[in-house]
Design a protein that fits this description.
The structure is a single chain. This protein has 572 residues and is α/β, with parallel strands linked by helices. 40% of the residues lie in helices and 15% in strands. Strands 1-5-4-17-16-14-15 form a 7-stranded mixed β-sheet, sandwiched between helices. Strands 7-6-8-9 form a 4-stranded parallel β-sheet, with helices on both faces. Strands 11-10-12-13 form a 4-stranded parallel β-sheet, sandwiched between helices. The protein starts with 11 loop residues before the first strand and ends with a helix. About 20% of the residues have low confidence.
């Protein structure tokens, strides 16, 4: 029986769809030269063009302007109308307005039932349990967790890399077990990180006994991925750069075949640049399994090599690179051709067409995993700091920064509306709402600022829960299957949504009762590597080796020397 009851929330207002505003230049934004065609990612910068001051590597945002030649767009609230194609949430200082059924269903869960909040808080505190959750978690569950965190410290919502670090911090504060709300490889990684930090006695539990898969991670667990590694690693010295969103087993098997380092969507570009700078221009980089991210990186390197001169590359991209070395890196970057995330896969041509026709006045955010069409739109926007391509954290930071900049610079009493296309999984809107409202509440009340989060999915992207209660009829998703809409982007990750409030409460109840060990065993992460060896190394240690290499790189800003040596030795 479902515990949660959604009350009729007074703070959520349903608003009529609004017509997109005409493109009017933005106030106070320096200009850049025009692009030769809408499909171009960059243009070759001539001697008369404005130069771009810095490559924003932490956000994959290409440029900050130097030239004081302004273009402007209206910050006044757009009029109401009926031409909006996508559902959206309008975030105000003390309220939220929803447009479209998908947004209405999402908004309903952002202010959770107080009973659910208190029940979860009581059980977590009683059992001394910590919870780490991914940004893509179920919106209802995130809403309850966010409310509980106000009174209970051991809760964290983050991207997959930071979840492990949060779990270690919770264990140091006395958490007796950690519940990991994500897919299986995340629970597996959190457990490995706890073990490496001396917390082998702290169990990690998943919310569901069933396998919680991931289309992207599973694409690297097939024979075709190992065959691709074997084939591409022949010849030149090869380094395998593997996306962190893969299983520990994949990392272990890969490391046994080719020298391997893990990357995130935030540090993948710098990983490629630094490894080729240290090891040499003949380095072959094998990137996988995310095909779209790899292709986007290839495109980015190609445009830089064709558009930037040596001085600018050294100044703004990497001090040890020039046109020739970037061209070598692009030529030697081999991308696995058959891996994608079901969420980001749907942000393709149809979504881009609607964005370009109806949302040209908006900031565009896109995860690095999106298809190339969406990548180019967001990357073009990033040239003028009107967009960002990066990780979930990069997207959140970009939205926070834009709202804060508006709050700091605004002088009029007219309402400013900042509009953001959310080119990633809709679940992270919980963190966005919380962060934006914190900024708005800290801003002088005479400054009227709204932030609109636009979901590039079909307006009808909802599905019935089968509940009789009218307040529970709609939840984010679609009836078309797996939480995705063929008429728009992907609304929610079907795997992430296997973690729900009822499952967490049931799990905490089992922990509290203290006599449910056989049942709790079924909630442990996959244990595919325990007791296994690959060659003369522990498979678990071999899997974690690639993560340690990345952590060393993040700390020292250099690829570990022993990894470089293994790459060179593999060539011999």
């Amino acid at each position: 029986m479902r515990r949660s009851t959604i009350s009729k929330l007074s703070f959520i207002k349903l608003r009529a769809p609004q017509a997109p505003t005409d493109r009017i230049p933005k106030v106070g934004k320096p200009a850049f030269a025009a692009f030769p065609s809408p499909g171009s990612l960059f243009h070759t910068i001539s001697s008369n063009d404005a130069t771009l001051s810095s490559w924003r590597t932490n956000e994959c945002s290409i440029a900050q302007p130097l030239k004081n030649n302004h273009r402007h767009f209206s910050t006044a609230a757009a009029p109401l109308g009926s031409n909006e194609e996508f559902p959206s949430l309008l975030i105000k200082r003390d309220s939220i307005e929803a447009s479209g059924a998908f947004a209405e269903a999402t908004a309903t869960y952002l202010d959770p039932d107080p009973t659910n909040v208190q029940d979860l808080a009581n059980l977590m505190e009683k059992t001394q349990t910590g919870i780490v959750a991914h940004y893509y978690m179920d919106v209802e569950l995130q809403g309850v967790l966010t409310a509980v965190k106000q009174s209970y410290e051991n809760i964290g919502v983050a991207d997959s890399l930071k979840m492990g670090d949060m779990a270690v911090d919770m264990a140091r504060r006395g958490a007796k077990q950690i519940i990991c709300l994500g897919v299986d490889f995340m629970a597996e990684s959190v457990q490995a990180i706890l073990h490496k930090n001396g917390f082998e006695h702290v169990p990690v539990y998943r919310a569901d006994q069933r396998k919680i898969g991931c289309s992207l991670a599973e694409s690297a667990e097939q024979d075709v991925y190992r065959a691709w590694l074997q084939k591409e690693s022949e010849g030149n010295a090869a380094l395998h750069v593997i996306y962190i969103n893969t299983s520990l087993e994949t990392k272990a098997v890969s490391s046994s075949m080719v020298p391997t380092i893990t990357c995130t969507s935030s540090n993948v570009l710098q990983t490629l640049l630094q490894s080729s700078a240290q090891i040499g221009p003949n380095l072959k980089v094998l990137y996988g399994p995310d095909t779209y991210m790899g292709q986007n990186l290839q495109r980015l390197l190609q445009v830089v090599s064709e558009s930037w001169d040596d001085e600018r590359i050294a100044r703004e991209l990497h001090p040890m690179h020039n046109q020739a070395s970037i061209q070598h890196l692009r030529s030697n970057l081999k991308v696995f051709p058959s891996g994608n995330c079901v969420v980001h896969h749907m942000f393709g041509a149809s979504v881009v067409d609607t964005v370009q026709r109806h949302y040209d006045d908006c900031y565009v955010t896109a995860h690095l995993e999106v298809p190339g069409e969406m990548f180019e739109v967001a990357m073009i926007k990033s040239l003028t700091d009107d967009g960002v391509v990066g990780s979930t954290s990069n997207i959140l930071n970009f939205i926070q920064r834009k709202v804060q900049e508006e709050a700091d610079s605004k002088t009029s009493t007219d309402t400013s509306r900042l509009r953001f296309i959310l080119g990633t999984e809709a679940g992270m809107v919980t963190s966005i709402v919380k962060s934006v409202q914190e900024i708005l509440k800290a801003t002088d009340q005479s400054k009227n600022i709204d932030a609109e989060i636009i979901f590039p999915v079909a307006a009808e992207a909802v599905t019935s829960t089968g509940e009789s209660d009218d307040a529970l009829k709609l939840v984010p998703g679609v009836s078309g299957g797996e939480g995705c809409s063929t008429a728009g982007g992907c609304a929610t990750c079907p795997y992430m949504k296997m973690n729900d409030l009822d499952s967490v409460m049931d799990l905490l109840t089992m922990i509290d009762e203290g006599n449910k060990e056989p049942q709790l065993q079924k909630h442990l992460p996959p244990d595919r590597l325990s007791g296994r060896s690959i060659g003369d190394k522990s498979a678990t240690d071999l899997g974690y080796e690639a993560i340690l290499c990345m952590r060393s790189f993040m700390k020292e800003q250099r690829i570990p020397e022993d990894l470089c040596e293994r790459v060179v030795q593999g060539q011999q």
